[in-house]
Amino acid sequence: MGVTRSLLLAASQSAWLRARATRYRFVRRSVNRFMPGETLKDALGAAAALLEKNIGAVLTQLGENIKQASEAAGVAAHYFEVLDAIHQRNLRAEVSVKLTQLGLDLSPDVCLEHVKGIVSRERKQATVWIDMESSSYVDATLEIYRRALAAFPNTGVCLQAYLFRTKNDLQNLLPLKPSIRLVKGAYAEPPNVAFPKKRDVDESYFALARELLRARKTGQCARVAFATHDARLIGRICEFAAREGFSEREIEVQMLYGIQRAEQDRLAREGHPMNVLISYGDYWYPWFVRRLAERPANVWFMVRNLFAR
Ligand code: FDA
Question: Which fold has domain 36-283?
Answer without folding.
Answer: TIM Barrel (3.20.20)
